[in-house]
Amino acid sequence: MKIIMTVLVVLLHVSLLTGQTFKRDTTGLQTLKVYNGKKLYKITEYDKNGNVIFSRKDDTNEGGNIYLYSISYDSLNREIFSISARSGSGFDITQKVYEPMQEKTYAFILDSANEFIGYYLGEATLEIIKNFTTKEELDNCLPVKKLLEGKKRLEQIQWFNANQQLIKKVEFEGKEDTAHVNIYEYDSVGKRIHLNSRQVGSMRGALDYYSKYDKRGNEIEITRVENYTWNGRDTTEKMVFEYSESNKKLKRTDIHFRKVSSYMIYKYDRHNRNISWHYYVTDVEKPVEINRFKYNKEGQLTRMLVEKNGSERFTFNYRYERKYWPK
After folding, report:
1. How far is CA 96 from its chain centroid?
2. I need a labelling partner for 218 at 20 to 30 A (CA). Which of 67, 188, 226, 264 fits?
3. Strand, coil or helix: what is 280?
4. Taking Cα atoms as reference points, which of 123, 91, 122 lies closest to residue 107?
5. Do 291 and 20 contact (CB within 8 A), yes or no?
6. Using one digit for the tens of pLDDT, what is the confidence trace for 301-313?
């Protein structure tokens, strides 16, 4: 079910930073640092083209995981390599290969049986990565070098139409056995209107996602339909969106089992930047979560305040640094 849940998360994702912009030039490299209070929470580094090339995130809870990512690109700004590491787990490397109308993703493996991807080191991973803060450190560490000496296994193939729109994605498990297939459909103006997501093999199942748009091109409804019922109940889920005359998203309503289960209210400043959203669940008068955003004069996010259940509060401060490439 991992792939189906990934699809669902992507479709349900709502950008919290709709007002955030990054102003970059052709010579500068920008680093974004996010602090949870005074503690460094996340580092994101960009190349001169605005591509993310490195990130580190430390869980907010004491003793939480550390997540590291490194991404490399070709001359067309297409991702070709990605390296990830997580404390308590290990290292993973993927490679993307591009062909006409097609993209293939491979995973590196050490396992001679060709069954397990990556390099599992368990708790030893923390000692290796705990002080890493740059792309170079992750790219050149010993476990990554060791994994690059291993074999590659095909993990995914994507097909595109003449408009470079994704029309089919097949993901594999084990020894390149087909595990999951997504089929995408678009309308005459290029808007995605249908996604069929199905698993094959022992975990058979299917989901359909249907999207509707208003005359201005705003997505106003996403419907998720399963091919079975749960205890005889209709498992259809739906999200409905409302917009202002200037196309700003004002409200999202979530519907489960044909009843409203939750909704989200968005607010903006005079520069059309999202300054807050309030999340409510049915039958609870006050919001269960509030996120508030502040920006600098360049439109960059500088602070995010998170309130949960009226008691938990977190403050994330964003700081931007710029380095320069030699001419």
Report:
1. 18
2. 226
3. strand
4. 91
5. no
6. 999 999 998 778 8
**Sign of torsion over alpha carbons 20, 17, 221, 179:** positive
Closest CA to 26 of 3, 6, 50: 50
Q: How far apart are CA 327 and CA 324, in angstroms?
A: 9
- DSSP per residue over 228-257, as a string? S-BTTB---EEEEEEE-TT--EEEEEEEET
Q: Which two tokens stand for residue 82?
A: 């990605």
Within 8 A by CB and 6+ apart from 278, the residues are 264, 265, 267, 287, 289, 290
Q: Which of 15-24, 210-219, 235-244 has the lowest mean pLDDT?
A: 15-24
Tokens of 288: 């269960």
Residue 120 has which token pair?
Answer: 């599992």
pLDDT tens digit sequence for 79-107: 999 999 999 999 999 999 999 999 999 99
| Residue with token string 């205890």 | 231
